[in-house]
Design goal:
Layout (H helix, E strand, L loop, with lengths): L1 H22 L5 H21 L1 H24 L2 H5 L22 E4 L6 E6 L2 E7 L9 E8 L2 E6 L4
Parallel strand pairs: 3-5
Antiparallel strand pairs: 1-2, 1-4, 2-3, 4-5
Helix pairs in contact: 1-2, 1-3, 2-3
C-alpha cells in the first residue's frame, strides 16, 4: 500500500509539473502542488520504507523532472511562446513639417535649452543652440540633427 501512495504522489507530481511547464508557465498553484507532491513522496518513502527505497524514489523524481524539462526544451513549445519579431520602428516627429535651416518661428516657452516653438503653424519641441531664449522671441532653425531641431535667437537689426 505504501508503494501505491508513493507512486500516486510521484505521478500526480509529474502531471502537475507537466501542466506547470506546458500550460501555465510561471510559478502557479500547479507548480507549488507538484513540488509538494514530489517532496512528500520522497519524505514518505524515506520514513516508511527506508533508505534504499527512499533513494530510489529520489532518483525517479529527479530523473522524471529532468526528463520533463528536457522534453519541454526539445519540443516546439518554447518556439511557439518566444517572440520572433524585432521592433525596427523609429518615430519621425518632424515628418511632413517641411522644416529647413533658416525657417523663422516664435518661441512659445522659455527655451532653457529645450522648449516648444511654433513653425509654420505647427508646435514642435526645439533645442536652443546658443543658450537661454525667452518666450515670444523670434527664432530661426540653425540645424536639424537626427530629428532634433536646433534653433537660435534672431538678431534684431
Amino acid at each position: 500500500m505504501d508503494i501505491l501512495i508513493i507512486a500516486g504522489l510521484i505521478i500526480a507530481g509529474f502531471l502537475l509539473f507537466i501542466i506547470e511547464v506546458f500550460l501555465i508557465p510561471g510559478i502557479s498553484i500547479a507548480g507549488i502542488v507538484s513540488a509538494c507532491c514530489l517532496l512528500y513522496a520522497n519524505y514518505f518513502a524515506f520514513s516508511t520504507l527506508g533508505t534504499i527505497p527512499g533513494l530510489i524514489t529520489l532518483a525517479v523524481s529527479a530523473i522524471g523532472v529532468i526528463g520533463i524539462t528536457i522534453w519541454f526544451m526539445r519540443s516546439k513549445t518554447v518556439d511557439k511562446l518566444s517572440l520572433k519579431k524585432s521592433i525596427d520602428y523609429r518615430p519621425e516627429p518632424l515628418q511632413g513639417l517641411n522644416l529647413k535651416t533658416g525657417d523663422k518661428g516664435i518661441a512659445l516657452t522659455r527655451l532653457a535649452l529645450i522648449g516648444n516653438a511654433e513653425f509654420n503653424g505647427k508646435i514642435i519641441e526645439v533645442r536652443s543652440s546658443d543658450g537661454f531664449i525667452d518666450e515670444k522671441c523670434v527664432i530661426e532653425i540653425d540645424r536639424i540633427l537626427d530629428g532634433v531641431v536646433m534653433v537660435r535667437k534672431v538678431a534684431l537689426s
